Amino acid sequence: MVTKKKMTLTFYQNLGKLFYAIAASDGSVKSIEFDKLKAFVKKQWLEMDAIEDFFGTDAAYQIEVVFDWLNRDEEPDIKLCYEDFISYKKEQSHLFTEDVRHLILKTASSIAHAFSGINKSELIMLAKLDIELKKY
């Protein structure tokens, strides 16, 4: 019998932090990057599971909510956003199946490429993320 991993609101919230850190790593977040994230949430992340937030909305939308909240903040700490995600990943490593890790990298890469291709700061962060996701 195959058991399905149950995601949590915190899982999706930490993804929002990660994807924000990727988008903001070059010093600004472009609307096209947020649009790309929303497309991935709608087409990929909503299919992950059926968990809902307190309002009855699919929990995957927490990715967008946290991303948008951080984007509206005066000076969010990009490094802390990334580190929060990594800490969560280490604490909840059982949630990060091969498919989930692949989708995280695919989403992050797509965000990074959304505006004028990938730049050095995004490339470095993506490489660090790739290495981190390969650890169990």
From TrEMBL:
Q: InterPro entries recorded for this chain?
A: TerB-like
Q: What name appears for this protein in its UniProt entry?
A: TerB family tellurite resistance protein
